[in-house]
Design a protein that fits this description.
64 residues; mainly alpha; 66% helix; elongated
C-alpha cells in the first residue's frame, strides 16, 4: 500500500490535500490533470520526453 505524506506535499508545493475527505483520490485526479496538460499543451518536447509524459499519463489513467 502506498502512503502519501500530505504535509510534505503541502510544504514543498503549497498544495493542501490535508482537508480533503478523499485525499488519495483528489491527489490522483490532480496528477492526472497535470499530466493531461503536459501531454496536450506543449509541442516542444523531444520524442523521449513526450513518450515519458504519455507513459505516465496512461499509467495514471489506469488507476481505478
Amino acid at each position: 500500500m502506498i502512503k502519501f505524506d500530505y504535509e510534505k506535499i503541502k510544504q514543498s508545493t503549497g498544495l493542501d490535500f490535508t482537508q480533503q475527505q478523499d485525499k488519495e483520490t483528489d491527489l490522483i485526479y490532480y496528477i492526472q490533470s497535470v499530466l493531461y496538460n503536459l501531454k496536450t499543451h506543449n509541442k516542444n518536447y523531444t520524442k523521449e520526453q513526450y513518450n515519458r509524459i504519455d507513459t505516465l499519463f496512461e499509467i495514471f489513467e489506469s488507476v481505478k
